[in-house]
Specification:
InterPro entries: Arg_deiminase. Its EC number is 3.5.3.6. Keywords: Arginine metabolism, Cytoplasm, Hydrolase. The chain has 410 residues and is of the alpha/beta class. The protein has two domains: 308 residues, 5-stranded Propeller (L-arginine/glycine Amidinotransferase, Chain A); 82 residues, Arginine deiminase (Pentein, Orthogonal Bundle). The protein is 31% helix and 22% strand. The strands form six sheets. It has a five-stranded mixed β-sheet, with helices on both faces. A three-stranded mixed β-sheet has the order 2-1-19. Strands 5-6-7 form a three-stranded mixed β-sheet. Helix 3 crosses helix 6 and helix 4 crosses helix 5. The structure holds arginine.
């Protein structure tokens, strides 16, 4: 059976992609909630949607089928039936802090009055206290939640579909994410894979599911070719999760190499794909800020060892490591902002390194990163710019905003 997921590179012609159109969740919060929700500002929703539609149209104009997470999730619940919907809702309430009790019951009743699409949208947008018909009568509900506006927080990061799951080969990882603000997101991906007619029982292999304590996010998971992956050791992805997924990939798939790349652990560079992306057979974007003296950075090339163990090779010359793993004579590492420290810092902040390749040498980028975009063109790439004033406020670019489902082989 051919799997409905097929991704054997970062650059093969993109055929199908998963997006999430920004909804009310991206404005349903106040500045004091921003750090916890991993946002740096509150986007202006109508413009953010316009920009996102432009992004989706750019992909469609280039022959890409665009799927929407919010739609697939509702369709998965439609297909799954009452029991699946109920289990999903219980799980979502539990992960939102209400496994049982009077607030649980009130939220359940409220959400249960909606059809699947409305319920999915509502969970994504967040639930404020003033919209639920509930007067607390016990001390826990009355005292412990006083002064906070929400029963269920919005999930503003959902439009970064890259992170909660990652397509790898004929399968995917459904991720246990790092921060509470994003941990519930991958529940949507899980129901889509389990129950949506397009994916359910179609031979999709789950390399690693969301039921783990160790953390990994798709922004760190780069499929370089059909047997080599690069995974960031980052603020969001831990070394033990990388070892775990490497074992699973080596055991049951066609992968034989995982290059773990250690990047700074901070908000601006939260994932490997904010500082490093593959854009052609032999071309990558790299933010100069991650390279130490002489262009060095810690990398560990992981390969299968004896008895299911892993072999490790620690090296610091990123260019040589990539050349060896990809069997290339030369490699073009293109520095964000052309290496100027001010421009590189600014354009990396606005995801100037976060390019989405839709074919070898053809990339989608934010228009605001004009220095990096010019440089990409000078290096021979075809650059399709998308508008980005509001979308960039969530700290993610075209690669983060897209989860490839099918790419042609390279
Ligand atoms: N793959 C990525 N770089 N995603 C960016 C995610 C940004 C989001 N605000 C977060 O902090 O999680």
């Amino acid at each position: 059976m051919t799997s409905p997921i097929h991704v054997t590179s970062e650059i093969g012609k993109l055929k199908t992609v998963l997006l999430k159109r920004p909804g009310r969740e991206i404005e349903n919060f106040t500045p004091d909630m921003m750090p916890r929700l991993l946002f740096d500002d509150i986007p202006y929703l109508p413009i953010a949607q316009k920009e996102h539609d432009y992004f989706a149209d750019t992909l469609r104009d280039n022959g890409v089928e665009v799927l929407y997470l919010e739609k697939l999730a509702a369709e998965a619940l439609d297909a799954g039936g009452d029991k699946v919907r109920d289990d999903f809702l219980e799980q979502m309430l539990t992960e939102s802090g209400y496994a049982a009790g009077t607030i649980h019951d009130a939220l359940k009743e409220y959400l249960d009055s909606m059809n699947n699409q409305d319920m999915v949208n509502k969970i994504m947008e967040g639930i404020r206290k003033n919209e639920v018909d509930f007067v607390p009568t016990d001390l826990v509900s009355a005292a412990e939640t006083e002064g906070y506006e929400f029963y269920m927080d919005p999930m503003p990061n959902l439009y970064f579909t890259r992170d909660p799951s990652a397509s790898i080969g004929e399968g995917l990882s459904i991720n246990h994410m790092t921060f509470p603000a994003r941990q519930r997101e991958s529940l949507f991906n899980e129901i889509v894979i389990k129950y949506h007619p397009r994916f359910a029982n179609k031979g999709v292999h789950v390399w690693r599911d969301r039921n783990h304590d160790t953390r990994i996010e798709g922004g760190d998971e780069l499929v370089l070719n059909d047997h080599v992956m690069a995974i960031g050791v980052s603020q969001r992805t831990s070394a033990d999760a990388i070892q775990d997924i490497a074992k699973s990939l080596f055991k049951e798939g066609h992968f034989d190499t995982v290059i773990a790349i250690k990047i700074p652990h901070n908000h601006a560079m939260m994932h490997l794909d904010t500082v490093f992306t593959m854009i052609n057979y032999d071309q990558f974007t790299v933010h100069p800020g991650i390279l130490g003296e002489g262009g060095h950075i810690d990398t560990w090339t992981i390969t299968p060892g004896k008895n299911g163990e892993l072999n490790l090779d620690h090296r610091t010359d990123l260019k040589q490591v990539l050349k060896d793993a990809l069997k290339l004579d030369d490699l073009d590492l293109i520095p964000t902002g052309n290496g100027d420290p001010i421009i590189a810092g600014r354009e990396q902040w606005n995801d100037g390194s976060n390019t989405l390749a839709i074919a070898p040498g053809v990339v989608v980028t934010y228009n605001r990163n004009y220095v990096s975009n010019d440089l990409l063109r000078k290096h021979g790439l075809k650059v399709l710019e998308v508008i980005s004033s509001e979308l960039s406020r969530g700290r993610g670019g075209p690669r983060c905003m897209s989860c490839p489902i099918v790419r042609e082989d390279i």
